[in-house]
Design goal:
By secondary structure, the chain is α+β, with helices and mostly antiparallel strands. 40% of the residues lie in helices and 17% in strands. Strands 3, 4, 5, 6, 7, 8 and 9 form a seven-stranded mixed β-sheet that branches. A two-stranded antiparallel sheet has the order 1-2.
Amino acid sequence: MNEEIDNEAGRRPTGAAAQAPAESSARARAAPRPGGHPPSPGARPPLPSASALPSLRQLSYLVAVAERLNFTQAAQDCFVTQSTLSSGLKELERTLGAALVERDRQHVLVTPLGRAVVQRSRELLGSARDLVGMVRAAAAPMTGLVRLGAIPTIAPFMLPQLVREARARHPDLKLALREDQTATLLERLRAAELDFALIALPYDTTGLLVRELFAEELWLITRMPERASPPRRLTISGLDTDRLLLLEEGHCLREHTLEACGLAERANPSGIEATSLVTLVQMVESGLGDALLPQMAIDSGFLGRASVLPQRFAPPAPKRTIALVARQTTTRMAEFEFLAGLAS
């Protein structure tokens, strides 16, 4: 990014014609300003040069430092020495004419302006990756690596079959999978560290390409009663919300459960929250409370021999919508449509 093309190279004067203007220019630069002092040889210009641009490598160094807040770890992430990373970051600051990172021997802090530059850097790096992906996809569609993310309440139930079918139809298409919470997946998606993500709606997907795949119901699981009782009509309004167990914050199933029950954001009265679906089921089995699970978990046999009773709600049942999301600028539309079709 920081190389320039000199379109005037072929028309420069030579010899004495070039020497006189050069000497005159040098004297002008060296001459003191009226009432002032000659510029310091090492002084940094107050504003960046309009012709100087940062490199992608420098921007990647800044992003790594912002994520790690540790120069040693950031250098390891970038596969360079710490001195190389530090020099590149200083050169970036000189190019932009502003301090982006404050550091001493113990602390690293990204300045407010630095945080804004980090955000733009992620976008630029993502666009550069998309550029490379566009060329490769045009040369050989449905081949190469596709990075697919999925949330924990989807990944174990949809990804195994999805990967098998994708491999069977397009053996040269390789899927690299990542399981994480929705906010992290979308952050990585926007930074072009992921190509697509399987998430559950409703969720804020502003600025992204969203393909809704299907809606599924949420079921109630309770501890298995000691004695069989006659079936009853289960409604969401009839739930004892004081017994409702939730996943910890960050899991979208938590928000979907609260929304389905018409509850404001809250923690469990007991202060106990599950970190995963497995833990949530174990908590219900222990009699700590009840919980909502997605239907794909019920249908997959996820409950196994757990002593819990899955129950379906009477209409209108609470639901969530499964969606595949990508960047609006994705260059892998063929793969996006293919995976959306498989997952629908």
